[in-house]
Amino acid sequence: MIHFPPTINEMESGFTELIHSYPVKMVTYGHLHGQEFDASIKGIVNGVEYILVSADYLDFCPIQIA
Q1: How many domains does the chain have?
Q2: Could you tell me the pTM of the whole model?
């Protein structure tokens, strides 16, 4: 779980390189608002599931993460 998105538009970053160098299966993050949602990394990328949990993105409805 991290506060900011690890990257934008699925481009590699220092964060994603670090995440992919360990057996990480899921990353949750937030701190995005409005139009930033479209550029965020979501879904499975390189075997890691990225989940955006920003409250306004989820319309303030909790989701189950399992």
Answers
A1: 1
A2: 0.87
Give me 43's structure tokens: 């879904």
Report the 10 Å Cβ neighbour count for 50: 21
Q: How far is CA 45 from CA 17, 32, 53, 62, in A?
A: 12, 19, 17, 23
Residue owning tokens 């990480």 = 24
pLDDT tens for each residue of 22-34: 999 999 998 877 7
CA 48 → CA 5, 10, 33, distances in Å? 14, 12, 23
3-state secondary structure of 51: strand
- Name the residue range of residue 6's domain: 1-66
